[in-house]
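Contributing: when you submit paired examples, paste them exactly as shown. First protein:
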Amino acid sequence: MLYLTIIGGAFIAWLILVVLFTPHIPYHIEAAIDGTSDHFIHVLESTCHTTLEHRNTIEIFTNGDRFYPAMLEAIRGARESIHLECYIFKPGEIGERLTAALCERAMAGVRVMMVLDAIGSFGTLHRYAKRLRQAGCRVERYQRMRWYTLARLNNRTHRELLVVGGAGVADWWAKPMHGKPMWRDTMARVEGPVVSDIQGVFAENWLECCGEILTGTDTYKPHRPADGAAAFVIKSSPADRATASRVLFQTLIEASTRRVLISTPYFLPDKAFRQAIRRTATRGVEIVVIVPGAETDQRWVRLASRRMYGQLLEGGVRIFEYEAGMTHVKSLLVDDLWAVIGTTNVDNRSFEHNDEVNVAIRDARVTARRVGRSC
């Protein structure tokens, strides 16, 4: 039995080394690039494996008292299909209302498909899954804990999607809870050609959950251009630790010439990202970071984040802590032209381990609206 003890000890030692001491990738851009140029668009299309789609309508909803009614309206108005994916789907008032709406649509003949993270939505899968399935909804768990998937246990789906032909689902986004204010967050309603790309992101995780390749016409609709903005969908999954979301964020920041506004609930940039932010600030670019204050839901993350403030503040970066409650807003605004809205936090869990999705919008009007609502 001694050899088993030695093997087990060696495995644990290796695991600790991998988790705690794996060196970060030293991300940096090869050469200066103009974020307003056609070449910049070509770079993002090539490196992030995406396509700029034109003529999309983007509507921004701030806070759950606005985006949950919009989500319920979209679900109740669905006639063909509903695809929902999220990390957090918690039991409660909002969970009950969404579940009832999804069940009603499924019983009316609408195809309802859901991907819920097996850890982030653990309680929901026990409370609602049977009811949803009995109504005709198809519910899949992402990264269930099996012996042969333990190596990927740290890979979660952090994507929040509602495709009808969002934010997570929990009461703390909808109302004050336990004496604390309602969480601040943002969701976007997108209409136009880019929706097909968002649908493809859902299809990727659906395939991984159950092996089914979605090919039907009720999944992929013909492009219907709207009046509005050009946008990319940037999907990001762990691939040798280098992800498209990191490429997007770092390239946009290093290409900026006037100002950058970062809103994130968890701000733990690695050394290469901190260096990129400092390099950008020293060029005279105004950089503002908005993070949670004392009302954060992750106090240890806030403490770790604050240890990094000094070198960034010395480099000219301005950091503000949101005091009115927990802010869960995740956005990147660059040069009054680019607005990135999605699920990615500024930390290595998002950049290296999670499945994430962002919409990068190239439109001064949308960016101006986001700037006005960021504080």
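Second protein:
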Amino acid sequence: MESISAGCGDAESLVLRFAPAVKILLWHGYLLGGTGSNVYTRALAREWTRAGHEVTVFSQEPEPELYDLGGARTVRPDVAGLLPVFVLDRYEGYEVKLVQDCTRAELDAWVERNAAALREHLPADLVFANHVLLGGPVGAASGARFAVKAHGSELEYSMRGNEPLSAWAREALARAEAIFVGSAHIRDVLDDVVGHVDRVHEVPPGVDIDEWRPRPRAEALAGLLAEARLDPPNPGNANERLPDEGNAERLAAFLEGDGPTVVYFGKLLYNKGVHVLLEALQQVDARAVIVGFGDYRETLEAAAGPRSLFTGPLEHRHLVHLLALADATVVPSIFPEAFGMVAAEAAAAGSPPLVARHSGLAEIADGLEQEYPPHLRHLASFATGDAAELGSKLSELLALPGPDRTAVREAARKATVTRWSWAGVARRLLEPFIYPHADG
């Protein structure tokens, strides 16, 4: 059964208005909260709608009215309770299975249910589907002109080494009018996992540069604590998808004083490399706020020292303030990443990111280095998994004299505004369709 609701938000968009306006069906098979492709979907809906396009978002989000979609319509396709995922997580009301653990009959039925929902809203100028699988097959089954956005998680976690899934994706992508990747790394991964496909356009994800911005410390701390006081109750932290109980008081006490603060935010999974950060912090004079949820949290908390605070997941309303307080944000992932979105958001907030130098994160480091003063460029990245190097560079970054610290913060912000704002991303994604001779 479908549910349709109106999006929210009437602010002016920075996106240049396109001519002519088009009707876009934006398909995303998951929720709209959290990070990664969920944020990507929300941002595109908001920017495209405010630019004058007619946008309908298809997702499994039960409460789309909580998110600013710029006024886009929303539809929740009936998927008969099944949710095929790339990383196992708990989703209330669903039978959750890894894509590769589903039978082909289950996947075909799931694709058809989603495609049927799209067909009910045709005609449209474009179906924009997230994820090679299962977005590619959903787009193809819709019968409409479609594009696919590869996010990386499906390629690495579900498709790599699985030839039947790769063959299915190859067949679907051959019918797509455009395939978008967020980095050169994901373009290479796509070729490696699926095989060569044509019509691939490299368009990095974006950052809301108005939301993520530098703020005075007192303002940022007050904003963070105010948002934490609005959190719903979570007795005993029983719901891992909610912020920890009592975060407002805990954060106020932990962030008291002017000591240097390091932040990590993201999933608490082994592949995210948080254990590398915790090891590095043993040699760093700093406190650390660790934000997120995941099956590795208990292990990480046991390994953390007394100067680390785990908050559970925080939303953007919290993070825009927390990152403005952070003297550095570390992205220590030891597994390939499509694009370092969290690093770009931190940079926009004026918190210099220190990232593991690999895959899409290396492209973030390259962008930062192009803006950093030459004698500080080495502080953008560290060797993957090397806790000693991370600790050394983190100590150096936190100890920079005032003028150098200001230069790094301003350069990090400039790198994001110049390269990774959502305004430019939203326009570039439509160029192959509105301006078919544009170079993607």
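If you have annotations for the second protein, write them as plain sentences, like these:
Residues 59 and 141 are 17 Å apart (CA to CA).
The two ends are 37 Å apart (CA to CA).
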